[in-house]
Automatic annotation (TrEMBL):
The chain crosses the membrane at residues 21-41. This is Pectin acetylesterase. It is an enzyme of class 3 (hydrolase). Keywords: Cell wall, Cell wall biogenesis/degradation, Hydrolase, Membrane, Secreted, Transmembrane, Transmembrane helix. It comes from Triticum aestivum. Belongs to the pectinacetylesterase family. It is found in: Secreted, Cell wall. One of its GO terms (molecular function) is hydrolase activity. GO terms for biological process: cell wall organization. Its EC number is 3.1.1.-. Hydrolyzes acetyl esters in homogalacturonan regions of pectin. In type I primary cell wall, galacturonic acid residues of pectin can be acetylated at the O-2 and O-3 positions. Decreasing the degree of acetylation of pectin gels in vitro alters their physical properties. Pfam families: PAE (PF03283).
């Protein structure tokens, strides 16, 4: 706050000296303070972003003919906001997250929400100051790019290709791979093919999907086009949780079997390991050739609940952090990769203005996430690999709000 106060007290021009006015009333003083806090005198960094227009849902054309449909057979959709200025030929494509459905019942139930049907999808606003935001101060590197938010309605990280029968006899469609391919094809026709720069991103289950398709996305462009990938909160771990179970291993195994995810798994991994192991990011990143930035809390609130833990459970969580740090050693040898692994207890930090780039954002080496990602993407910084110390050691994490589900936007707008 001190720096902000100094900005307030340092106008562009020094005013002429005038005799002191002793007749200001308390009400007048309050008015001055109010204007300083909310009016034009307020530092620009603290200003509210301009109102964002709703971005319509575009349903994939010819979805049924392509077999690229949501779980309930409805066409999938995406939201496209056109870029401007020097961002008119730059594209950011983001894959939505939202967990996985691993049983017939779970997938059947998903038909009653956006996770399995486009019938419930509505226009959204690319609000706030996250990577989808349109305010240059709070999203300096990507504010005016073409931005695409691809909705998630298949339950297997845009990677399955199968069908099943629900209990009521209707067909459940697991066509995530076809959805990914058809949506990217349609976006290429809408201008993505002419991109001079492209950033492929995802959050949570969408980040895992982005990892699975990163090299395929890169292969769709000429070699001279700058194409990079950015994974937010997708580095899920194959470790025993606090309960002592390998819960994610079991979940992923069911997803792979039910939805036939094997097609997108790295062939070099499948040659030596089980498909379930090849679905984990620790294995995926060994095969990915495209430059990637990994953003992840070392204590992910989706995978673990650190609140009210006893000392033994905290040791388990520290073990998970150590596992992540060890798995990420592969990234150290990839010169054009980057990472920002903070010790905050949270999930999906790029879609929130508070965590992306604000006065209270988490920082590593005194950089916000937006600054670290922007420096890596633009090549402004060579040292773009930062791993935080253990939980509660980083005071910039304390200003984050309690974790919330930002991987599914059924009834809220994107912040």
């Amino acid at each position: 706050m001190a720096a902000a106060t100094e900005q307030l007290l340092l106008p562009q021009e020094q005013p002429r000296r005038r005799p002191p006015v002793w007749g200001l009333t308390v009400a007048a003083l309050l008015l001055v303070l109010l204007l300083a806090a909310t009016g034009p005198l307020r530092p620009r960094l603290f200003r509210a972003p301009p109102p964002a227009e709703r971005v319509a849902l575009t349903l994939l054309s010819g979805a049924k003919e392509k077999g690229a449909v949501c779980v309930d057979g409805t066409p999938p959709g995406y939201h496209l906001q056109r870029g401007s200025g020097d961002g008119a030929d730059r594209w950011l494509v983001h894959l939505e997250g939202g967990g996985w459905c691993s049983t017939v019942k779970e997938c059947s139930d998903s038909r009653l929400s956006t996770k399995g049907s486009s019938n419930f999808m509505k226009p959204i606003r690319f609000m706030g100051n996250g990577i989808l935001g349109g305010d240059q101060l709070q999203n300096p590197d990507f504010y005016n790019w073409n931005k695409v938010y691809v909705r998630y309605c298949d339950g297997a990280s845009f990677s399955g290709d199968a069908e099943a029968q629900a209990q009521d006899g209707t067909t459940l469609y697991f066509r995530g791979l076809r959805i990914y391919e058809a949506v990217i094809d349609e976006l290429m026709e809408k201008g993505l093919t002419n991109a001079t720069q492209a950033l492929f991103t995802g959050c949570s289950a969408g980040a895992l999907s982005m990892m699975l398709h990163c090299d395929d996305f890169r292969a769709r462009f000429p070699q001279e086009v700058s194409v990079k990938c950015f994974a937010d909160a997708g580095f899920f771990l194959d470790e025993k949780d606090i309960s002592g179970k390998r819960s994610l291993w079991s979940l992923y195994g069911r997803v792979i079997h039910l939805q036939n995810v094997r097609k997108v798994l790295p062939k070099d991994c499948l040659a030596n390991k089980e498909p379930t192991e090849c679905f984990f990011p620790a294995e995926l990143i060994k095969s990915i050739r495209t430059p990637m930035f990994i953003l992840n809390p070392s204590y992910d609130s989706w995978q673990e609940n650190i609140r009210n833990c006893n000392s033994t459970q905290v040791e388990v969580l520290d073990g998970l952090r150590n596992k992540m740090v060890n798995d990420l050693k592969v990234v150290e040898d990839k010169e054009d990769w980057g990472m920002f692994i903070d010790s905050c207890f949270t999930h999906c930090q790029s879609l929130s203005g508070v965590s992306w780039h604000s006065p209270t954002s988490p920082r590593l080496e005194n950089k916000t996430i937006a600054e670290a990602v922007g420096d890596w993407h633009s090549g402004r910084s060579q040292g773009a690999k930062e791993i935080d110390c253990k939980y509660q050691c980083n005071p910039t994490c304390n200003s984050l709000p309690p974790p919330r589900d930002v991987t599914a936007f059924d009834h809220v707008e994107i912040y």
